[in-house]
Amino acid sequence: MGKYLLRRILQMIPVVLGTTLLVYALVFALPGDPVKAMFGDKPINAAVAAQIRAEYNLDKPFIIQYLLFLKNALTLNFGNTFSGQPVIDEIGQAFPVTIKLALMAFVFEAVFGVIFGIISGLKKGKWYDSVILIVSLLLISVPTFVTGFLAQYFIGVKWRLLPVTAGSDPGFLDLLMPAMVLGSVSMAYIIRLTRSEVSSNIAEDYVRTARAKGMSNRQVIVRHVLRNSLIPVVTYLGQDLGALMGGAMISETIFNVHGIGFLTYQSILKGESNMVVSIVTLLTLIFVVCNLAVDMLYAALDPRIRYA
Amino acid sequence: MKKRMLALAALTCSLAMVLAGCGASNTTGSKDGNEVITAFDTEPQNLLIPGNTNESGGARPGTLLFAGLVSFDAKGKASNEVAQSIESNANATQYTVKLKPGWKFSDGTPVTSKSFTKAWSYVANVKNAQKCSSFLSTVQGYDDLQKAGSLKGDEQLSGLKDIDDSTFTVTMSKPDATFPIKVGYLAFAPLPESFYKNPKAFGDAPVGNGPYKLESWNHNTEIRLVRNNLYKGNVKPKNKGVTFKIYTKVDAAYADVQGGNLDVLDTVPTADAKSFKTDQNVQAYNQPGSIIQMFTIPSNLPHFVSGTEEGTLRRQAISKAIDRQGIIDKVLNGTGTQPVDFTSPKTPGFSKNLNGKDNLVFNAAKAKELWAKADAISKDNDKFTISYNSDGGNKAIYDAMVNSIKNTLSIDVAADPMPTFQEFRNAVDKRSIKGGFRSGWQPDYPSAENYLFQEYDSAAAHGSGSNDGDYQNQKFDQLMDDAYAAPSTDAANAIYSQSQEILLNDLPTIPMYYDNAHGVAAKGVKNLAIDWQNLPVYSQLHK
After folding, report:
1. I need a labelling partner for A274 at 20 to 30 A (CA). Which of A23, A58, B202, B400 fits?
2. Residue B477: alpha-carbon gap to chain centroid
3. What Cα–Cα distance (Å) separates residue B264 from each residue in A37, A188, B284, B393, B527?
4. Chain B nearest C-alpha distance from A227 (Å)
5. Which residues of chain B carry a pLDDT beneath 70?
């Protein structure tokens, strides 16, 4: 187990190096000149522009810029944004907000997804099974930004049940609507996944055997059906946590949440490679760690799986 | 049994969410005092240093934090603020500035001559990489401060002399009659001594002499300003403070105004452009503003060469082929105004009756006639394209315009969208666009000079200014020089009107419409007025 862990952690190094190089190259390849854009439509003072280029190493060739970034990153210095703020500070401010948002969405989709999925799966064909299925289909087929705007207009503006936007220093209630919108699509997938797993497992031989041995219905469902049904659900959830962090952008812009998605978007527009690369590296790490955690959870859920 | 258990689990979950939520909502409710106005803003692109602030995200709070020598009223008329008097010599090459006594920065230190002269030198000095440095270009000694290699950053402009604590003189390198107006622009704000010790820290927590002072700046979230009791200028704030909430998307801000969470938003998202004027949840405003939208036809474009008969005919034909009012009504939903000149209705000296303003009016028959005349000189079979950046919501406007020209003149015209503003600006700077391209102008200070010199004077052509079409006309240049040396603002404005009649004939750019100042305020916000910059007069708002 320990050896396996070590191997997985070592694998992260090339993954992270590869992504940073790729992303740095992509931002560099963006057409247009970030320094010129800073002046907008107004006349550019060439000497001032040159001064700014030198300050941010923008006058150097690509590979030098990248190596300089790497060298500084090793000492945990991720550089400054064009407005002079340390990149690490801006990320440090935006990240907790996104984590909060993503975790809320995660809990929302996991709890409601699994519960509705089980209800649906155990009572296939009943009227509430049909309702749950139709609602989940709706959530999957309608894009998040539509769900978001609709929720904002009705729940926020019209009925005034929840805050319209999250704003500064968002609390639980401020983030509730964005989190539900963010988690809604994944929740629908989890409902469908859980439903089909539960309904197929319940017809398995080992369930029949368990019942024949005289186990109570509750024990059969919890110990045998659920445990087996949840393996693919956990896989999905694990990967989804990373996706929620990176995919929070739409939800964040609709509800004015100042998280990592917004920061990435802004930085790409401004051509701030340091910021974009730092964020993507962080997201890569989260993805890799989440996947590792999922693999570890498999072992706990399924005794047949062993790592060496 | 099992059914009940599941229902119970679901119930506890939702109950927990509601309970936790109630606690949070109580704290958010009491955050803002009644007299504090909340306003829309975007995160400033730079730290709040006046000379480095060249975009609206920083300018909104910046203009409230700093007071210059003069201030502008809502109509753009300049009156003395910190200045007691600004006196000019006969040909506008030297100014003597006297300051009013008793002005202080919000940290209590006095505002003296040095607060201005040292700050201006700092902005002009290229070593400090201030984005507004070229505004100082008419002050003597500016050129000496442009050689980055040999400068330390604290060299002073040789044209500025402190006579005493409340008097200084400014010597210009060439006549500049607009200087007494220019000094109202944010880049000319005074700075306290504490700035020079650590400009970065200052930019994060600026200390100014304006009607408001900074309480806190939570980056990417909000900028809180409160009334500055040491301020003694022309502005009389009617609220306790202004909190700028930072938004990433205008749509979210609009929803907040509808929901009563934001008091004022100085723009309207595209999705609501049709309905905002009749939206029951907000107060809307929509009036002619100071921004003019145009497109430039490069002066050397084949068949459109400026100064030639053929070129002039074609420019006029294109201009007359655009159904501006139709586009304003249908595409802009009435948030624009038919143009009659090259400045704006909010510019002091604006005239509706310039010779040649007919060239900006849709006239299909006349357009066809002019184009045929031009074709008689030399047949033009080239495709005419108009480029624009498609990230700014311009697509519908340009499509409509191209269609209007195509239908009127029956020629091959196409819109050429470029994905981003950066890319678009790059192409404009490289002069690589072989056709017309979008241009627009938002003034920095309320003067016709700011529109006309920057965009059409030969001195601003070929990369040294914003004359991106490289228009050159000696008669026009001469009038610009005359206006700079004019004895008064009114005399200068008369000359600017004259110069615009040349432009109305030559059409170096084709004016399309004045952008209306339009936006929304929450129900219950009182005293909504719009200034010459198309922004709400924040200090006058109250609830």
Report:
1. B202
2. 24
3. 28, 38, 10, 22, 12
4. 17
5. 1-34
Judged by DSSP in three states, A161 sits in: coil
In this structure, what DSSP letter does residue A222 have?
Answer: I
In terms of Cα–Cα distance, which of B16, B79, B147 is closest to A104?
B16
Count, residues in chain A: 308
| Facing residue for B255 by CB, picked from A38, A111, A152 | A152
Q: Do strands B384-389 and B413-418 pair parallel, antiparallel, or not at all (unpaired)? A: parallel
Residue B339 has, within 13 A of its CA and on its CB side, a CA count of: 31
Q: Which of B165, B182, B17 lies closest to B86, judged by CA?
A: B182
- pLDDT tens string for chain A (308 positions)? 678 888 888 888 888 888 888 988 888 887 777 887 788 767 778 888 888 888 888 888 888 888 888 888 888 888 888 877 888 888 888 888 998 999 999 999 999 999 999 999 988 888 989 999 999 999 999 988 899 999 999 998 888 889 988 877 788 999 999 999 999 999 999 999 999 999 999 888 989 999 899 888 888 888 888 888 888 898 888 888 878 877 788 888 889 888 888 888 888 877 788 888 888 888 888 888 887 887 777 777 777 777 65
Rounded distance, CA A302 to CA A44, Å? 64
Task: Taking each helix axis as running N to C, give the angle between helix A260-270 and helix A87-122, from 0 to 180 degrees, rounded to the nearest 10.
Answer: 130
Structure tokens at B257: 């105004």
Q: Which helix (H) or strand (E) holds B388?
A: strand B384-389
Q: Tell me the C-alpha distance between B468 and B427, whole Å.
A: 11
Distance from CA of A127 to the nearest CA of B (A): 15
Q: Do B256 and A258 touch (CB under 8 A)?
A: no
Q: Please judge whether A165 and B420 are an interchain contact, meaning their C-beta atoms are less than 8 angstroms apart.
A: no
What tokens were used for A139? 């959530």
How many angstroms away from the CA of B100 is the closest CA of chain A? 33
User: Which of B131, B147, B453 has the most A C-beta neighbours within 10 Å, making it the best mutation to test the interface with A?
Assistant: B131
